[in-house]
């Protein structure tokens, strides 16, 4: 089974989480721990770079939705970027696409996440 690799980078007001590997029941705890440690501030937006995630099951989806709920509770939001075919289908059939923005590229997602911040300046 391929391992899951997680990395992040902080920008002003946004944390970009880079996910490489399958997101499933075998690593849900790893994902949730990483997210709680990587986010700089609860109100920051989170952009998930999913370009290297070929598969996601309901456990991976649950980790993303838990993060989204926490972000919203604190005035932030999440954005998904570069989503591959199978995870995109999961987002479509579960209705996630109606509630969480999905962008073609990480740069597009970061720009969208920063848009409310730029308007308030």
Automatic annotation (TrEMBL):
Any one Gene Ontology MF annotation carried by this entry is: anti-sigma factor antagonist activity
Q: Where is the STAS domain?
A: 4-113
Q: PROSITE patterns per the record? A: STAS
Q: Which SUPFAM superfamilies match?
A: SpoIIaa-like (SSF52091)
The family database entries (Pfam families) matched by this protein are listed as: STAS
| Matches recorded under CDD domains | STAS_anti-anti-sigma_factors (cd07043)
Show the NCBIfam families listed in the entry.
ant_ant_sig
According to its UniProt record, which protein family does this protein belong to?
A: Belongs to the anti-sigma-factor antagonist family.
PANTHER family according to UniProt: ANTI-SIGMA FACTOR ANTAGONIST TM_1081-RELATED (PTHR33495:SF2), ANTI-SIGMA FACTOR ANTAGONIST TM_1081-RELATED-RELATED (PTHR33495)
Q: What is this protein called?
A: Anti-sigma factor antagonist
Question: What does the record give as the organism's lineage?
Answer: Bacteria, Bacillati, Actinomycetota, Actinomycetes, Streptosporangiales
């Amino acid at each position: 089974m391929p391992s899951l690799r997680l990395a992040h980078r902080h920008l002003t007001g946004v944390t970009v989480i880079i996910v490489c590997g399958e997101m499933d029941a075998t690593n849900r705890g790893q994902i949730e721990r990483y997210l709680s440690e990587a986010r700089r501030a609860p109100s920051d937006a989170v952009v998930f770079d999913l370009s290297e995630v070929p598969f996601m099951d309901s456990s991976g989806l649950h980790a993303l939705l838990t993060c989204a709920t926490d972000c919203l509770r604190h005035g932030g939001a999440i954005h998904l970027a570069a989503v591959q075919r199978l995870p995109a289908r999961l987002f479509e059939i579960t209705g996630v696409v109606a509630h969480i923005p999905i962008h073609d590229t990480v740069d597009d997602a970061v720009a969208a996440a920063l848009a409310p911040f730029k308007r308030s300046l």
